[in-house]
Amino acid sequence: MAKIIFATGNEHKMTEIREILAGLKAEILSMKDAGITADIVEDGSTFEENAVIKAKAVAKEVDAIVLADDSGLEIDYLNKEPGVYSARYMGEDTSYEIKNQALLDRLKGVPKEKRTARFVCAIAAVFPHGEVIVKRGTIEGYIGDKPAGKNGFGYDPIFYVEEFQCSTAELTMEQKNALSHRGNALRAMKGDLEKRI
User: Does 70 participate in catalysis according to the annotation?
Assistant: First the structure.
């Protein structure tokens, strides 16, 4: 059976990845599952560049297909901040509660139509023979006036989806997977993986 190693130690992310990639003839492991502890410097200027950097770094350590993603939040009114710095915004050890509140404070008084935002996810696949594929997925929405919901993580409580009139932290796991940026990118990638496994 083929092995796919996803370059993350984030269990929330692995749950989502395994659900969406279910049905592939492959064992899907996290870096932790595979015993890899590479310290990767993500110094790309786009989500795509960072995903490729991560996947290539892990691919050097294993003879398997390696997937890596880079994702984040782009807020149009704030010149697409926090963007590629989403995880490191205000410092890596700063809680998302503080980050979310800081973004809400910066948008105070800004009308809803100018609070447009999107979650972006780029996923890179590096194959043992060196081929690299990159897919991008997005979900459009807006930044609400206050945090809401307990189902998500990161910026989910302040990111609202028009279709459901609620934050992504208020969606069920099934709803979120069906429309999330990572879900969209993974589904796009799954088609390519099916042809190659």
Answer: yes
